Amino acid sequence: MSLFRKIKLLSILLFLFTCFSCKKSNKDVSKTIKPVENNTVLYDSDDDVLLDTIQKQTFNYFWEGAEPNSGMARERLHMDNIYPTSPKNTVTIGGSGFGVMAILVGVKREFITREQARERLYKIVSFLETADKFHGVWPHWLNGETGKVLPFSKKDNGGDLVETAFLIQGLLTVSEYFKDGNKEEQKLVAKIDKLWRGVEWDWYTKNGEDVLYWHWSPEFGWDMNFPVGGYNECLIMYILAASSPTHSIKKSVYHKGWARNGKIVSTEKFYDEDLILDYYEHDKSPVGPMFWAHYSYVGLNPYGLSDTYADYWKLVQNQARIHHKHSLKNPKNYKGYGDSIWGLTSSYSMKGYKGHRPNNDLGVIAPTAALSSFPYTPKESMKMLKKLYKDHDSLIGKYGPYDAFSFEHNWYTPRYLAIDQGPIPLMIENYRSGMLWELFMANKDVKSGLDKLGFTHSKK
Fold first, then answer.
1. pLDDT digit string (tens) for 218-239?
2. Among the listed residues 361, 370, 376, 317, the one whose alpha carbon sits nearest the alpha carbon of residue 339
């Protein structure tokens, strides 16, 4: 063995010994990052090490943690193996939209190969082809073993247009990634194109009204009665509905339904930040939970995006700043809130799933709120990430930070939700490379839809 190889081997052994030494005590959390599978990563001031770590952990929710028959994202993964509200084989349509994009992040960061990604994505798309659909629209939940609808609530047993929009956003991003690939990749792209063309967005205007409805069921018809007026997490739904090459909506559906004939605009401020849009059609709250700044924008790039009503970069950035300022001010004096512990969104809480936001603050922090805001508040989000991994590693498990915690109530749960884990690796990737934004915004149908609705956006 050459001297060089001996030195290299000794260096590797020394590194491994140091890593395992760091695992001896959870008390020494300032020097360790939670293990990723069998590999311990030394805490490093290099931010890229930490970003790689959390991206791999959250990616694995959708890779190793996927429902095995369908390959889809499980609605929830509970490390205590207790599932009180839905079976473990429940798969989520919206969460799977984030999941297929996370698989692309896995390739980008070399967690998996391109071929492994194609195989898994082909499995997912093949499952979606035969799964229950309602005028081309999938339900909120499916049984991952059978492809049959699992009711989200009594009357919510049909098509869910919002969840479908999150899925299509992901599938179109995947299609752009593989569109110039080999024969097998072309087969995947063709399957996605067929699913995309099959979504009957115009059906969900309920006989031609100037608004999109969230739900329709063959059993209950339009009984859910949820016309979607903005602003909320549903911007992507209207953009995709306008972008469809087969079932496109009229411009008036966006301007009268979503934008409410201009009433969507706000001139108010909150924490000295312009709100820009009215966050609630039927509520007085000034600002929404942070997921509103994430779900539509994992593919849709808000930077340089504007229309008659908003500069969307300013909108989402201001929302993140408001949430950060709220934690700094901490009007209810909750324990732990501050510069490095911030962000409210819909998540688990001490009493089930709750919609946390500054005007409905129960003292519960959901890590996804700050960590999925990396493109908007990179310094503040990095402080949150480092604080969690350095000082609170009990809040981190196999698939990254657990869904939510409360220092005020001395509470956390070792449980995950797909819709909260999903945006983390995606928005971090958009912060690091812009990959998902670049792919989605390159889609010719999406460009056409944005132009149709009067958006200004990058033409690249």
1. 999 999 999 999 999 999 999 9
2. 370
Using 50, 70 and 90 to split pLDDT, how confident is the model at 427? Answer: very high
Three-state SS at 71: coil
Residues sharing a CB contact under 8 Å with residue 83, sequence separation 6 or more, in sequence order:
76
Sole residue written with tokens 């593989």:
178
How high is the pLDDT of residue 138? 98
Rounded to whole angstroms, the Cα distance separating 251 from 242 reads 7
How far, in whole angstroms, is CA 440 from its chain's centroid?
Answer: 15
- Could you tell me what percent of the chain has a pLDDT over 90? 88
* C-beta separation of 258 from 241 below 8 A: no
Mean pLDDT score across all residues of the chain: 91
* Dihedral pair phi/psi, residue 141, rounded to 5°: -125, 150
The closest alpha carbon to 138, from 116, 156, 154, belongs to 156
b (16+ CB within 10 A) / e for 388-415? bbbebbebbbbbbbbbbbbbbeeebbbb
**What one-letter code names the amino acid at 426?**
L
DSSP label of 72: P
CA–CA separation, 121 vs 100, rounded Å?
7
Q: What's the token pair of residue 386?
A: 């480092």
C-alpha 396/C-alpha 388 separation (Å) is 8
Amino acid type, 362: L
For 298-343, write each residue's pLDDT tens digit.
999 999 999 999 999 999 999 999 999 999 999 999 999 999 999 9
Cα 111–chain centre separation: 19
CA distance 316 to 297: 9
Q: Which residues of 205-229 are buried (b: 16+ CB within 10 A; e: fewer)?
A: beeeebbbbbbbbeeeebebeebbb
- In whole angstroms, what is the distance from residue 300 CA to residue 358 CA? 25
- Contact between 242 and 251 under an 8 Å Cβ cutoff? The reply is yes
Q: What is the pLDDT of residue 384?
A: 98
Residues 6+ apart with CB under 8 A from 302: 312, 313, 315, 316
Nearest alpha-carbon partner for 103 in 7, 170, 34: 170
Residue among 459, 289, 430 at smallest CA distance from 362: 289
Q: What are phi and psi of 430, to 5 degrees?
A: -65, -35
- With residue 397 as reference, give the H or E element that holds it: strand 396-397
CB atoms within 10 A of CB 380: 23
Residue 11 has pLDDT above 60, yes or no: no
The 10s digit of each residue's pLDDT in 84-115 is 999 999 999 999 999 999 999 999 999 999 99
